[in-house]
What we know:
The chain is an alpha+beta fold. About 30% of the residues lie in helices and about 25% in strands. Helix 2 packs antiparallel against helix 3. The chain starts with a helix and ends in a 12-residue tail after the last helix. It binds 1,6-di-O-phosphono-beta-D-fructofuranose and magnesium ion (MG) (2 copies). The site of one magnesium ion has 4 residues, from strand 5. The site of 1,6-di-O-phosphono-beta-D-fructofuranose (FBP) has 12 residues, from strand 5.
Amino acid sequence: MQTLAQTLSAQAVNTSLAQLLLTLADTSKAISVAVRHGALAGVLGATEQENIQGETQKKLDVITNDMLKDALKTDGHVRGLASEEEDYVVEVSANGEYLVCFDPLDGSSNIDINSLVGTIFSVLPAPDGALNEQSFLQAGRKQVAAGYVLYGPSTMMALTTGNGTQFYTLAPDSQEFLLTDDNVQITPDTAEFAINMSNQRFWEAPMQTYIADLLLGSIGPREQSFNMRWIAAMVGDVHRVLCRGGIFTYPTDNKNPEKPFKLRLMYEANPMALLVEQAGGRASTGYETILDIEPTAIHQRVAVILGSTNEVDTCLSYHGIDYSEEPSID
Length: 330
Ligand SMILES: O=P(O)(O)OC[C@H]1O[C@](O)(COP(=O)(O)O)[C@@H](O)[C@@H]1O
Ligand SMILES: [Mg+2]
Ligand SMILES: [Mg+2]
């Protein structure tokens, strides 16, 4: 089996980018150890702090953020970073060619119940000139790499550098990420959906109707029954979609009018959208292709509907969008 380094070399990935991805991979191995030790290492539970988004930080949110920040500072190829746990962008190496956006620990609410969590990352080219928030505000289509590491029964990485989506599994003995699926493909059709149903009354009308029709199953207009899965960590839900198809959505809701969306564009939606598109799937807000959104802020939030192409298209048709008529994007 090929190692991550061998695969990146076989894909002729730029040497600096490959080095940066190996730094991220090495850091995720250390995070995997911290996650695995759990209560034994005293890393469970919350801190007293909130991040800029008003969310109480878990100890592991802060620990993993610091681990990634420290590693990227010594990598040499990173101009700047943006993180869910950093209020503002952080300047890293003056000559770095790349910007890295990351969610150091996705699925924070799963930490204390020993359930799935992961790290999500997105790599963008660093523009010339002074580094500021504006430097990061590039559409997801500009990403040169995106991926996540899932700390589950096995530690796995999903990665794309624009050459399809690959899965790697961390070998416990050698501590190498080994290529275990070189061409991940999302099945275009599915009978499985993932949504936090407790928000049902807060969704917009198109999503209400779409989900109601799924729930009616074989006696409704879809004339087939659907199963539901919800891991409550985007990284776990998207991994399932990449493995066996499905539709995952965190739609617009009006529970808190000041916060109509949950997931963050730059370090959750964009990297997942690239992985999904590179695996033959679709990712939209309901009205706009995620990778085409021009960001306005590093912590911007968006609605997300992603997964099996035909099912996402069906969901979008409830929103009045006909994707089959859109010109394809190279
Ligand atoms: O439990 P909720 O409020 O529906 O939220 C679940 C969603 O929130 C998230 O945990 C947000 O990510 P963080 O844990 O990184 O803040 C997603 O992974 C997940 O899909
Ligand atoms: Mg997250
Ligand atoms: Mg997080």
